[in-house]
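From the shared-data thread, chain only:
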Amino acid sequence: MTTLEKRGKFKAFSDLISVFHGKRGVHLVVLYLVVGPWRVPWSFRVYRGKGQPSAAHLGLTLVRQLPKWLKRAFNVRVLADTAFGSVDFLQGIRKLKLHAITGVRYDRKLSDGWHLFELRKPGQRVHLQGLSYPVTLAWFYLT
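Structure, as tokens:
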């Protein structure tokens, strides 16, 4: 998710400009292809806010539109931030037979009722609520 922040009046773009997480502007879901040292923007969709398709839905649409030759030629991994850690996004990636590395909220519930923040050991395989398959947890500390 990328925000092109806007200040002032933009009548021609009024249907594209919204406020998301306190930022007013055009909010884009961008799919980048990363191969070695190169990072190339491949496609994007405009996130229009509440009542419209979610960022996760738009991201999944972009991944679905990747050409078949690209998926055959490369080992595709989907790397996404926490906005894309929803059940629908993760299930959609799995249906495409791809692997995802995403952020998830620390208060996400597990199928046994626990929360992620109650776990103490990285590398555990757990069942997130709403998913029928296990996921592996990892976390990092920035110092």
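Strands lie at 2-5, 18-20, 23-35, 38-47, 77-80, 99-102, 125-126, 135-136.
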